[in-house]
Amino acid sequence: MKQRYCEVALPVPLRSTFSYAVPAALNGEELVGRRVVVPFRNRAMVGVCLAVSDRAPNIPRVKELAEVMDPLPALPEKLIELGHWISRYYMAPVGETFRAMLPPEVELRHDREYRLTDAGRAYLQELAAIEENTPEENAELELLRHLDAQDQPEPPARIRRRPGGEALAEKLVRRGLLGAREVLRKRRTRTQKIAAWNPANTDQSANAAEETIREVLTTTRGPLPLALLMEQAKVS
After folding, report:
1. Strands (DSSP E) found in 30-164
2. Helices and strands per DSSP (H, E), number in the chain
3. Phi/psi at 233 (5° precision)
4. What value does the mean pLDDT of the chain take?
5. For the residues 56-65, what does the mean pLDDT come to?
């Protein structure tokens, strides 16, 4: 199958789309209208795929899509046409136009990752060779050693446990000793059980506890979270 390329609208103040290569794992997938995660500069961003073709873009290096977020298109064809019209009519950036047409990205959170650079490794060797370090140098040495021992970039949550925390990490980024990039992570989903009384059930209550549950649910017009129902009905 030929290499496919897609045009992605990103929420940046530009009136153009951006070209990305479609990985082989997504061959056969319909991508138009779906939200995708793509690398943009030094961070990951969510955009909308607006078109797919097998014509290679005229740019030196084409990056690949990182992830497809939606099992089905978030925007159907008619809404994509509407988004293009709004962008042209109001001379608005195409990516920001489509972002306004989508629900907030509540399932995602922006995060930052840190990694050790070559300059950081050289500085680590210099600090390790010094017999007496200052407290600040000791904190730098501990953080650099920790990152040097990791096989992958470290998120801020783990950096905060180190002396100096994120403030020290950002200081080392400015000095070129650490590299940092923005990434998108999916939020952990939480579920809860809810209960509602079936109005089609006209049978007499089997016991007092069941009658109490029926009264609570019909009075509050349910459904209720199971824990709250048990509390109000005083049942186990």
Report:
1. 35-40, 43-53, 67-68, 108-116
2. 8, 9
3. -85, -10
4. 87
5. 90
